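== Polypeptide entry ==
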Amino acid sequence: MERKPLSPEVRKQIIIAQRTEITEYHVYKRLAGIVKDKENSAVLSKIADDELRHYKIWEKYSGREVSPSKWGIRKFYWIARLFGITFGIKLLEKAEERAQVNYHEIGREIPEAIAIGKEETEHENKLIAMIHEEKLEYIGSIVLGLNDALVEILGTLAGLTFALQNTKLVALAGIIAGIAGALSMSSSEYLSNKSEGNHDGALKSAFFTGIAYFVAVVFLVVPYLIFTSPFVALIVAVIDSILVVFFYSYYISIANDQPFRKRFTEMVVLSTVVGLISFGLGYLVRVLFGIDV
């Protein structure tokens, strides 16, 4: 039976789908080759095979070969290497959703397209869920460390900025408070995990919490080592805290399929309120005790 010629719009959609599938095939294939965990490697290879099969189906209808996006391959490969396999491939899948491939529109002329679209969303999601990545098990510890540092240290810096009005002294106090806070958070996380029976992961949880706390402290204190005006340094520190919240909220929203806007807004509002309260307390301390540094 002779196949009907495709409409220009459907043909355009198929070409987009082909490029997306073959690009993802190369990304998954490269990742499967470098992942040490054999089970994860097998899952990635299976997804790669699915992408290649879909590409060949589209090729049958378009009648032409389509080259992958070399930039897309490099970009998502290195994102996965730097930020984790789960984050990288989920970001890749979200990029596929934005590729404007309308399976229902294609399905009017190619019924097979509906099944492919369903497989893209259901089957691949199941496979991705099978990937085991150790760092995601400790995402709660990382969030704990970041949240506490941003709220506590930003509040401390805001209060000291008005009380002392000396960038070097504020930076010194911030570093001391940051190191003490990181050690305190790490030990608390370690004891908390031990008490809950998580003996194997207690040390790693403590490590991730402490490192996350310390990284946040560095972002907040550095402006006081760069700028001479304590109030400019405070403004930059606040901007830094918002950027930190933005990036880790975005990371969690992608890696753990959680709402981005709600988490980001809550954290920014909380940090801002604590900062304002601390700033006011610093002013009161300066006035009441007549501090003049």
